[in-house]
């Protein structure tokens, strides 16, 4: 078939529609015509690919343009799209496009028309286009600008609806390419898309659903991935149009089921687009950006904010799940500053409708959106008591049940909420109230499911025991850590009740697992400190069987002896995996093993403190083989001393950021776990080591990492204040041990207050960590003899 014959056949395609239904012979004739057309187009394009070079053969390029135009016209008939795609037409057209070098605009225009028509309502052809990776070629030949220019309501008024739809469909293919996205934005694509959506909503009355679907899909991708697009949309009038469609949009009367499903998809795309606008400044390809104008712009727009607040009202029958999801996620993204979070809770009391919505909605998108914003709202200290008092803890804890395990993102957010509410409130009574809601609260009497009376603490423990995600398990254990810190932070009747509930072998097992398996020193340190508190309390307040059970968690005789009793070279090189090593083996590795040399010295000190506590409790409980236990540990530690293993001669040189597990930073719908990079002290100029001075004033205190950060920063910026610490007079010997340290704590705290409020830190932090409080309250033996980590080891045998 010649080029003229192909052109003639293409022009006849509309007239062939009626022949399908006249007779079987006519049906076969139409199929024969289509087969001949497709075969001829494919052959002509294949020849064109072989003949086309980068030369200046104008006649050949004119022929190529005609072929591409004929293909585009043929693809307007849906019967031709599948066979044209299968015949390799897409590949041939793109191969020729690769040879244009942006010098053949006529061919490129027709080629884009062909690809657009071939992809129209045809996912298989779209996949073929994506597979050919033509996005870069389209960008290089100014194809993006040409397509964006076609997206104009004026084109619709001139009978070019199909052309506008095809151009928009092509953009949905291009939005996976970063360069194409940037060009769309630079061509004022956001405004054009919004104007076209407004036309579909106000003029076309949602009659052209295909066009609206492509527009919504493209806008969604732009606003989720490009900060400039987010900023443009946030400052445009079109943003309100998107909200109007989400709230009031409905199909004309008589729409069929397929149209209803298509419109539901459109609304979900528009919801994602609206939420994307509130993400401005968070994500940007190539790295973080500073632009975040929408954070204040949208929040301070009372019309938009009030609409969001109205949409989270579950008792409003006119509010759909799309509106609820959109409002919750958008508010969550706007709640990325303490100012916004505090105002939303203290003035608007959003926690109340959010919790009602969480209980009433069965839509998983809504549930996930609600717990996400609740997590952000739980960050400021001023909000914690309000959010807990609203019943948040008991309501969200239900999502930790095994029946909800398929909802992992929701469960992870719930763990973050519980962890935040269990810590951080400056008011101790508020913090105890929150922790009590976790530890001792039972199911409300009026709860619908009266058979389920599990406390949040029980749900957390059960979640830890069955979850197979390491990050989720670690964060859940940190909820327990925060509860323990609060319970041991002050002497009070409420504290005693909490301690009784928390001092269980089940919780100890969870803490031991974190120390054994975590690769982060901060998490190991939290587990070690918490175990020291629990073990000391159990020794003084729990029956012997509880103490025996606790000690059995830490080791068995066979495991211990296999690792530490022999001083042979084989024993020294023994290094069981953390998953199989018992706690004592892990603690010994932390303290003395060379491969653990990057462990911060404060963690090593706390590990030594826990070892001592284990030995003291074992002796007090008079367990079997106590002497073997003590001597085995002592032999290993003293062996390390003789070999000159350095345990305290380190200095923090810089702060490093570890991967986040989520929880302590506001984030788009984690906390930053930080550890320190330790270098030998000898590599730094003298005098630099603040702890040498502190040791002279009473000995080594097992600091945690946050304390060392404060001290190092303080030494560099407030050296004179710290030098004055050395001027503190020692109390008289008659004063008892607790009073002596209390006086020193207060004096030191007065000096450190200047540091605590420094802008270098996100929030006020006490100088002394929970490990020091443990010394004051439940481990008097540590106060009797405090020194360097080496001193701990060399005198360990006295206990």
From TrEMBL:
<keyword id="KW-0496">Mitochondrion</keyword>
<dbReference type="GO" id="GO:0005739">
    <property type="term" value="C:mitochondrion"/>
</dbReference>
<keyword id="KW-0963">Cytoplasm</keyword>
<dbReference type="InterPro" id="IPR000225">
    <property type="entry name" value="Armadillo"/>
</dbReference>
<dbReference type="GO" id="GO:0005783">
    <property type="term" value="C:endoplasmic reticulum"/>
</dbReference>
<keyword id="KW-0256">Endoplasmic reticulum</keyword>
<dbReference type="GO" id="GO:0005085">
    <property type="term" value="F:guanyl-nucleotide exchange factor activity"/>
</dbReference>
<protein>
    <recommendedName>
        <fullName>ARM repeat-containing protein</fullName>
    </recommendedName>
</protein>
<dbReference type="InterPro" id="IPR040144">
    <property type="entry name" value="RAP1GDS1"/>
</dbReference>
<dbReference type="InterPro" id="IPR011989">
    <property type="entry name" value="ARM-like"/>
</dbReference>
<dbReference type="InterPro" id="IPR016024">
    <property type="entry name" value="ARM-type_fold"/>
</dbReference>
<dbReference type="GO" id="GO:0005829">
    <property type="term" value="C:cytosol"/>
</dbReference>
């Amino acid at each position: 078939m010649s080029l003229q014959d192909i052109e003639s056949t293409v022009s006849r395609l509309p007239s062939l529609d009626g022949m399908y239904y006249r007779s079987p012979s006519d049906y076969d004739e139409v199929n024969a015509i289509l087969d001949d057309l497709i075969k001829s187009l494919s052959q002509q394009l294949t020849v064109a690919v072989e003949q086309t070079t980068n030369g200046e053969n104008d006649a050949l390029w004119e022929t190529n343009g005609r072929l591409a135009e004929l293909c585009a016209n043929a693809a307007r008939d849906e019967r031709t799209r599948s066979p044209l795609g299968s015949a390799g037409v897409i590949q041939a057209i793109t191969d020729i496009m690769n040879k244009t070098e942006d010098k053949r605009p006529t061919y490129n225009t027709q080629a884009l028309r062909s690809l657009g028509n071939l992809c129209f309502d045809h996912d298989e052809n779209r996949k073929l286009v994506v597979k050919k990776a033509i996005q870069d070629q389209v960008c290089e030949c100014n194809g993006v600008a040409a397509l964006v220019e076609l997206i104009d309501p004026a084109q619709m008024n001139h009978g070019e609806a199909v052309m506008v739809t095809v151009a928009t469909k092509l953009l949905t293919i291009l939005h996976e390419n970063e360069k194409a996205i940037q060009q769309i934005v630079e061509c004022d694509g956001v405004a054009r898309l919004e104007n076209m959506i407004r036309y579909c909503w106000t003029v076309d009355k949602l009659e052209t659903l295909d066009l609206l679907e492509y527009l919504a899909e493209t806008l969604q991708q732009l606003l989720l991935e490009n900060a400039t697009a987010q900023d443009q949309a946030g400052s445009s009038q079109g943003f309100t149009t998107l909200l109007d469609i989400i709230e009031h949009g409905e199909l004309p009367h008589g729409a069929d089921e397929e149209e209803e499903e298509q419109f539901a998809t459109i609304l979900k795309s528009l919801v994602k687009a609206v939420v994307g606008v509130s993400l401005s400044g968070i994500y940007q390809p190539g790295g973080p950006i500073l632009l975040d104008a929408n954070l204040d712009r949208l929040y301070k727009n009372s019309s938009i904010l009030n609409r969001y607040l109205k949409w989270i009202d579950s008792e409003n029958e006119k509010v759909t799940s799309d509106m609820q999801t959109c409002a919750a996620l958008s508010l969550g993204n706007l709640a990325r500053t303490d100012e916004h979070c505090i105002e939303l809770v203290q003035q608007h009391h959003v926690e109340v409708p959010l919790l009602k919505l969480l209980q009433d909605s069965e839509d998983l998108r809504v549930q996930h959106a609600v717990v996400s914003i609740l997590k952000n709202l739980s960050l400021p200290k001023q909000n914690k008591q309000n959010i807990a008092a609203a019943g948040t803890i008991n309501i969200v804890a239900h999502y930790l049940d095994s029946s909800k395990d398929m909802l992992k993102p929701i469960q992870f957010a719930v763990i973050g909420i519980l962890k935040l509410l269990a810590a951080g409130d400056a008011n101790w009574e508020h913090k105890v109230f929150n922790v009590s809601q976790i530890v001792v609260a039972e199911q409300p009497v009026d709860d619908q499911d009266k058979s389920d009376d599990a406390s949040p603490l029980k749900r957390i423990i059960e979640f830890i025991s069955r979850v197979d995600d390491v990050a989720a398990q670690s964060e859940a254990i940190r909820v327990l850590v925060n509860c323990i810190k609060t319970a041991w932070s002050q002497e009070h009747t409420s504290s005693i009740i909490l301690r009784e509930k928390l001092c269980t072998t089940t919780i100890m097992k969870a803490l031991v697992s974190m120390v054994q398996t975590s690769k982060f020193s901060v998490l190991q340190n939290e587990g070690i400190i918490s175990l020291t508190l629990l073990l000391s309390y159990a020794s003084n307040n729990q029956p012997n069987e509880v103490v025996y059970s606790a000690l059995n968690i830490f080791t068995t005789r066979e495991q211990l002896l296999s690792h530490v009793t022999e001083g042979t070279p084989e024993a020294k090189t023994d290094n069981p995996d953390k998953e199989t090593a018992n706690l004592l083996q892990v603690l010994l590795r932390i303290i003395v093993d060379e491969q653990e040399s990057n462990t911060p010295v404060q963690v090593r000190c706390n590990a030594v403190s826990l070892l001592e506590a284990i030995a003291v409790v074992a002796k007090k409980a008079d367990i079997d083989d106590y002497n073997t236990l003590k001597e085995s540990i002592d032999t290993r530690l003293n062996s390390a001393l003789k070999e000159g293993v350095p345990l305290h001669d380190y200095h923090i040189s810089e702060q490093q950021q570890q991967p986040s597990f989520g929880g302590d930073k506001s984030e788009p719908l984690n906390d930053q776990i930080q550890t320190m990079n330790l270098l030998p002290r000898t590599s730094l100029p003298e005098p630099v080591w603040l702890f040498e001075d502190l040791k002279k004033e009473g000995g080594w205190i097992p600091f945690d990492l946050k304390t060392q950060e404060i001290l190092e920063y303080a030494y560099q910026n407030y050296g004179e204040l710290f030098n004055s610490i050395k001027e503190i007079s020692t109390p008289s010997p008659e004063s008892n041990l607790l009073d002596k340290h209390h006086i020193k704590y207060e004096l030191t705290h007065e000096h450190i207050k200047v540091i605590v409020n420094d802008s270098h830190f996100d929030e006020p932090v006490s100088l002394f960590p929970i490990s020091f409080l443990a010394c004051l309250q439940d481990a008097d033996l540590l106060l009797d003899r405090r020194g360097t980590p080496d001193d701990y080891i060399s005198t360990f045998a006295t206990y």
